[in-house]
Amino acid sequence: MLHISSKIAHMAGLQGNLEKARQGFEWTLQKLEEKVHLPDVDEELQDLRELWGMTKNWYGQTLLELNKLSEAKQCFLNAWEVFNEIHDQINEDALMLLNNLGVVCMRLGEVSAAEDYLRKAITLSKEFPDFVEANVFKANLGLVYLQQGLLQKATEICSLSWRLSKKAQNERAVEQADYCLEQIKKLRETNKT
């Protein structure tokens, strides 16, 4: 039942009903945390921890949309901790989680941490040749470089992201690369005046 509740909250978030998603996640997390502390769930503990971590990640995404950045970051860190505790190798979900951490750190102005998370996601994504979301990671790293004032590096990686995204026909990645390139253009125009 808790797994279904978490998925319903996630679907609400994806559909833009962020308040319903927030309420669903908070209820699910409360119930999960009650169960994790019960003595008779030892054999189920790993499954419950994994569900808790997945729910924290999804809740973090909702909080990111609600611009509750510090809370979102904590959720992503909790999810990352659980992922590392349970899984012995990286998968595509872990890559997305690293990207989420990079994005929330970037939005918090923690550019060094954002760069570290995104570089790690990009490096590890090379183990998954068909994983097209890596181009989104590159565009996000370009935005971090832009925040650091590294205009040339930002231009190079966002342009690369755009070309690779076009080739892969990944519209989401193309949009993110376009956004990055637009921000670079705005900064250049501002610097000219």
Automatic annotation (TrEMBL):
Read off the InterPro entries from this record: TPR-like_helical_dom_sf (IPR011990), TPR_rpt (IPR019734), TTC19 (IPR040395)
Keywords, in A-Z order: Mitochondrion, Repeat, TPR repeat, Transit peptide
Tell me where in or outside the cell this protein is found. Mitochondrion
Residues in a coiled coil are none
Q: Which GO terms describe its cellular component?
A: mitochondrial inner membrane
One GO term under biological process is: mitochondrial respiratory chain complex III assembly
Q: Which domain of life does this protein belong to? A: Eukaryota
Name the Pfam families for this protein.
Answer: TPR_10
Record family assignment: Belongs to the TTC19 family.
Q: Which PANTHER family match?
A: TETRATRICOPEPTIDE REPEAT PROTEIN 19, TETRATRICOPEPTIDE REPEAT PROTEIN 19, MITOCHONDRIAL
Question: What is the name attached to this protein's record?
Answer: Uncharacterized protein
